[in-house]
Sequence to fold (282 residues):
Amino acid sequence: MIVFIDGEYVKEEDAKVSVNDRAYVFADGAYEGFRVYNEKIFKYEEHKIRFQRSLDELRIDHVINNEIQDIYEELKKVNNYENVECFYYMHITRGQSPRAHAFPSKKTKVGIYAFLMPKALNIRNYDEGISVCTVPDNRWARCDIKCISLIANCLASQIAVENDCAEALFVHDGVITEGTKTNVCFVKNNEVYTHAKTNRILAGVTRNTLLELCVKNGITVHEFPLTLDKLKDMDEAFLTGTTEELTPIITIDGKKVGSGKVGSLTKKLQKIFKEEVNRYSY
Fold:
């Protein structure tokens, strides 16, 4: 696979980064993940705006222009990924400087890394649903920034794997916030419930798109904290994410959600979202 690293397109195994890059020593950077359908970046502008916001919040002095699209086009070409559903990743770091916690005294050139890889939807999970577990939310208080410091997410994901689950849901002070790489929604009486946009979650592009589609289709949406003890009252649940789209949840911590099967509203929303993908990309 050919990747992009600091202005060059090289084989993945030949990509190199300085040991003084602040991404390496401090995880000092932001990233964005994109879904590619029919060779088009889905919701490109929404992702670009969120990426820029993350950089601004981290005070990384860089304005995103056309590099997201330009690098994608070249990666598609050199990897021969035509007509292939892909996942596209890019991160931007504060750049290289001798190790010191405070920002470099002189402006540094940002570091940029990107790759493009085939990524199809997990149809089995999408059709049959998944099991998830809950874990304490011990992340920092700025979860709304899509930064590359993800060790808490990695630890939570490993707990999910060890419990034969596809995802872990974070719980902060008894409130379900989000997954390690997804947002989570619940359904009660054909109405959708999800955590509000606060510093406790990263409001996903898929999440935001879905909520807009709900409103357009007359489906009521509630954005407020949902506590663990309310799970037993929910009829359905599903994850939203760039690579997951809308993936149903059938058990949480070993307990069935509703009937323990993929719910009717979840199926309807999957169809509505697919229609949006087709409208946007085809």
